[in-house]
Design goal:
By secondary structure, the chain is α/β, with parallel strands linked by helices. The chain has four domains: 174 residues, MoaB/Mog-like domain (Molybdenum Cofactor Biosythetic Enzyme, Chain A), CATH 3.40.980; 46 residues, Molybdopterin biosynthesis moea protein, domain 2; 85 residues, Beta Complex (Molybdopterin biosynthesis moeA protein, domain 3); 73 residues, Beta Barrel (Beta-clip), CATH 2.40.340. Helices cover 18% and strands 32% of the residues. It contains seven helices and 28 strands. The chain has a six-stranded mixed β-sheet. A six-stranded mixed β-sheet has the order 16-13-17-21-20-18, sandwiched between helices. It has a five-stranded mixed barrel with strand order 22-25-24-26-28. β8 and β9 form a beta hairpin. α1 packs across α7 and α4 runs parallel beside α7. The protein is elongated and about 90 Å long.
Length: 411
């Protein structure tokens, strides 16, 4: 049995680059950018009016002039006008190009307009006020968005602005999620007294959807030849296999021996943690020609064998699959900590992932344990926001006020 730290290091040393693909920019939210986005021109591309009002030559105001004849209107999207007389003004709209020979904008709220004359009603203005200068946000050729960034709505606006109708993003791994067990039936079925509905597989599907990773699902009964046949085909077709169940010591927990018989290299089995101690992890090395038409290269199928208890599956996906994915696509995940809100007593000398409710108190994030009934109590997660990670230690008491890492699953 290895430690959580050792297990995570092994997993992070088994990451894989899946390449990139080009997608329409509007479909790229949540994906990982695989190119630098450069400014195709200055931003803004002209001296931009940032308030509705009038544009003047500041020198006239400085010389004491307060009333200005209106020469015309500079609308947003219209070609640049020129101020013909430095003692006149031009009405300007937000987003318009600043008229030539004008350098200062006074907002309408500070002006009275009557009979074609705009009178400034305030005593002090600043030269170049309410003007967003050309190139202030970025010069042509500047990197506006660096690669490996997760694309959000903010990035979509920039992509549109620079004319990137398609964008390179990290290709997602092809994932199969497999549940096993004769006790499981479909969501729309009525279980017998000795059966339960499948739930873990759909939890995993949803956790992967948060990463914009599509997945397929399958259910295999506790029949070793059937397991072996189906897993053999999955190993050839998919980049990642996520299993829920059949990795412990039960008489029908066939997966470890099936993996061995199919040539899947075991990198570890069992981690000193609760929940999820029977966690199995390995890889199958295959030759593929996906990347280069003429060349074959080594392609590993990564296998995560999560224990079948619901909370075990849930926390293992967050604690291990998520970091594996982020490193594979070149993203540095944000690490968070929280203050323990009350004393926690835990006897086993294991790393403890405890579900908690998060609250903000006096500017600090505080984690309060959520009472549950073990790793099979999926319902307890409904009242929780995160797992707090309590270190493996000989001590049995974790004291209120101490700081520990957390893994959020709810914002």
């Amino acid at each position: 049995m290895i430690s959580v730290k050792e297990a995570k290091n092994i997993i992070l040393n088994s990451t894989q680059d899946f390449g990139f693909e080009e997608v329409p920019f509007i479909k790229s939210v949540g994906r990982i950018l695989r190119e630098n986005i450069l400014a195709d021109r200055d931003f803004p591309p002209f001296n931009r009016v940032s308030m509705d009002g009038i544009a003047i030559d500041y020198k006239s105001f400085k010389n004491g002039q307060r009333a200005f004849k209106i020469e015309g209107i500079q609308a947003a999207g219209s070609e640049q006008l020129s101020l013909q007389n430095s003692e006149n003004c031009i009405e300007v709209m937000t987003g318009a190009v600043l008229p030539n020979k004008a350098n200062t904008v006074i907002r309408y709220e500070d002006v009275t307009i009557k009979n074609g004359i705009a009178t400034i009603n305030i005593d002090a203005i600043n030269e170049k006020q309410n003007v967003h200068n050309k190139g202030k946000d970025g010069k042509v050729g500047d990197v506006l968005i660096s690669e490996n960034k997760i694309i959000s709505a903010a990035e979509i606006g920039v992509l549109a602005t620079v004319g990137k109708s398609t964008v390179k993003v990290a290709k997602q791994p092809k994932v199969m999620i497999v549940s096993t067990g004769d006790e499981l039936v479909g969501v729309d079925e009525t279980p017998l007294a000795h059966q339960i509905r499948r739930s873990n597989v759909f939890t995993l599907v949803s956790l992967l959807e948060k990463l914009n990773i599509p997945s397929e699902t399958a259910h295999i009964t506790d029949d070793k030849p059937v397991l072996k046949s189906k897993i053999k085909s999955f190993l050839k077709e998919f980049d990642v296999l996520l299993f829920s169940g059949a990795v412990s010591k039960g008489k029908f927990d066939f997966l470890p021996e099936v993996f061995d018989e199919l040539g899947v290299e075991k990198l570890f089995h069992k981690v000193a943690q609760r929940p999820g101690k029977p966690f199995w992890f390995g890889q199958k090395k295959n030759l593929s020609s996906d990347k280069h038409i003429d060349d074959k290269y080594q392609k590993n199928t990564i296998v995560f064998g999560f224990p079948g208890n619901p909370i075990s599956t849930f926390v293992n996906c967050l604690a291990y699959f998520y970091p594996w994915y982020f490193k594979s696509v070149g993203v540095e995940p944000k690490e968070e900590t929280a203050i323990l809100g009350e004393d926690v007593s835990f006897k086993p000398n294991l790393e403890y992932f405890l579900q908690v409710k998060l609250e903000s108190k006096f500017g600090h994030l505080v984690a309060f344990p959520v009472k549950g009934n073990g790793s099979g109590d999926l319902v307890s997660l409904v009242n929780a926001d995160a797992f707090i990670q309590l270190s493996k230690t000989e001590e049995i008491l974790f004291k209120q006020g101490e700081n520990f890492p957390i893994i959020r699953f709810r914002q």
